[in-house]
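Let us begin with a simple case.
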Amino acid sequence: MSHHAKRLPFDPSLAGDDGVLSIDWHISDQRLSTQDTTRLTVTLRNHASYYEAEALQTYLRIVTPGGADAGARPDGNALLALSPTVQTIERIAPKSEHVLEYFIAARGPQAGVYAIEVEVDYHLVYVYRELCRHTKAMARLPIRVHGGDTAPRTEEIHALPPSSEPQVERLTISQRKLHMSEQVEQVGEYGHARRRELHAIERKVILPGGGEVIVSYRLVKGSHERPEDCRPAHGWNPTTKEIESYFSTSDEAEIEITMRNCSELHLRHIHLHNIHLFEANGDWTKGKPADAQKLPDGNFTFQVLPDNVYFGHLLPTETSVRYLGLVTRGVRDGRFLIDFDVKYEIVDGKFPLALPLVVRPD
């Protein structure tokens, strides 16, 4: 006869066991070389039965096994870049999951194992809307870079240091086997790039309830965690009064999108929804899709990630910034549109928007 331990009564005042979230990840390329781009998919799962994770802010960066910065090229670009490094999730319901997508770009780092450092800042909320705690969950995931003309790194990945904050958890990590082949590939040369100051391009949208939202955007390279280190690649030149583009047919950058609420309305649960790339007609109207063609290796020639961005709430006069990753792998030069709908909660509010983009030949 089996014996079952007596089940304790549920107490909604307790947050439950730690480890509410678990993380799984997948890299689309079997071999990430020292001059390469690939897609990273991160899945966050909520294992709680009575609690949802709400207002999640996810921060990712690539570090050495010891936790140091992976370094930068002489032109200021990171040797190993991950974009967008910050993403926001509205909520993950109990026993549910949410998938995040990223680009990883290698620009000549030393081969070997690196780590993807993950931090998730979120509210743990009882399903009947009682806030239990504001907490963080952290993890360090391995990633291997192949090739290069120097000996690969051989250090072991260090554990995350203890935190002085009492409410910090460790994410439960799914075990994944790394592809450990050590073939050597040649690294190409790179040159210096001059610095330039390009301002964001603005688009105004009139809201049905009165007032307007100003959406501004530019392409940046480098870490947006240190804005002074960003090198604009597409934007408005205040000196020449013209839009300039330094984004080419084999390139990668982040789209910095800023949304400012210039109305008296409180906009809630703002999403950029159904994000896609299109060719632009001569009058800048939407033409053929530009993000469907693939290379023989299965990668898309032109790609934007993720396809849905959560901004959260915007009070009157408030501003919020989010980032997208953009990569070209031999797409033809020309004029394109980054097309999406902006959805928000004021009587199912929604407006369409398309941001012009010029791609220059290499």
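The second case is a distinct protein. As before, the sequence precedes its structure tokens.
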Amino acid sequence: MQSIYVFKPPKTEKFTNTWIYYRVASVDGEEPAGTLYAPIEICRVTWPTFKDMPPATNTPGITGLESAYEHQCRFLREQWAVEHEESVFIGFLQ
């Protein structure tokens, strides 16, 4: 299952062309998706079709139960200047 989020940059919140849509999903690595140590994949997606905008990137380092959120937030901040805490969850894709 993939979670879809939208981030509206604070200074340009009213301009929909500045919004960043992205998905977060646990994927199979050495461990099955959704389990301890399975990587988390993050990818920007298009609106309204939610098609991937390559490249999809796996979070770096070991993804544990407590570190997954931290890795995800750091990646989003460093790569796209997205603050995950300020993003809005808009739904799931299967």
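The first strand starts at residue 2 and ends at 7. The chain has a mean pLDDT of 87.
Keep these points in mind for the review questions at the end of the chapter.
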